[in-house]
Amino acid sequence: MGKLYVFDHPLIQHKLSIMRNKNTGSKEFRELLNEIGMLMAYEVTRDLPLQDVEIETPICKCTTKMLSGRKLGVVPILRAGLGMVDGILNLVPAAKVGHIGLYRDPETKMPVEYYCKLPVDAPERLLIIVDPMLATGGSSVAAIQFLKDRGCFNIRLMCLIGAPEGIAVVQKAHPDVDIYIAAVDERLNEHAYIVPGLGDAGDRLFGTK
Ligand code: PRP
Ligand code: URA
User: Fold this and answer.
1) Which of the residues 9, 66, 163, 173 has the least number of beta carbons within 10 Å of its own beta carbon?
2) Residue 197 and residue 184: Cα distance in Å, rounded?
């Protein structure tokens, strides 16, 4: 089964609490989501391989470390995943960005696909799928399957808040994918919203409600 990494860093928890507050407006919500995205990316990329390189400092020649060949891709699930991309790119500017368009049908709660555009060399990259909300898990499962269907198997999933039942669904469907998350909440409500959660992430991010 894939590993579940829960980020209990005080800065992340503090920023997430502000995001949860219903009185926090879109501007601050957007800024915080990007900041948390950057902080989480720091950990998600912790095991990236390094290689020795020769350089010359103002003092002398030396052998030091730089990232080696394994390239990164960030794949937001539209819409709300877009809110985490810039934070990650601040840390890893060379990463390429793919997009997967999915929305959750309000009646069936099942994901509906409408877009997919990936970097041409996506199968050679470590791909980090980003989406703030992991509720039933349907969108994450579908997004991971999208990537696998296109030959990509080196995948990590990075979310802000998850419901225990949704996390279990992803772990069962894709046991090879590790999940990185800032908080595991209590449960889903009757509308498949995360409790306590933060409401509809896409609407809060883009001010559409
Ligand atoms: C939200 C969220 C996830 C999905 C999670 O997107 O950003 O993609 O719901 O729910 P699930 O785990 O039950 O699939 P939404 O479908 O509201 O689309 P939007 O981002 O376009 O608003
Ligand atoms: N999508 C959201 O944006 N929020 C939830 O709580 C569940 C799904």
Assistant:
1) 66
2) 9
pTM comes to: 0.95
Any idea which ligand is nearest the CA of 189? 2
128-158 confidence digits (pLDDT tens): 999 999 999 999 999 999 999 999 999 999 9
User: How far from the centroid of its chain's Cα atoms is residue 12's Cα?
Assistant: 14
Most informative mutation of 29, 139, 159 for ligand 1 (most atoms within 8 A of CB): 139
Residue 97 carries which side chain, given as an amino acid letter? V
For 36-154, where are the E strands, in sequence order? 50-56, 61-67, 72-78, 96-97, 99-104, 111-117, 126-130, 133-134
Closest CA to 207 of 25, 6, 1: 25
Residue 1 pLDDT? 84
Angle at 137 between CA 160 and CA 190, to 5 degrees: 95
176 among known catalytic residues: no
Q: What is the pLDDT of residues 94-112, one digit of tens each?
A: 999 999 999 888 888 888 9
Q: How many helices (H) and strands (E) does the chain have?
A: 6, 13
For a mutational test of ligand 1's pocket, the pick from 108, 129, 133, i.e. the residue with the most ligand atoms closer than 8 A to its C-beta, is 133
Q: Which two tokens stand for residue 150?
A: 């296109």
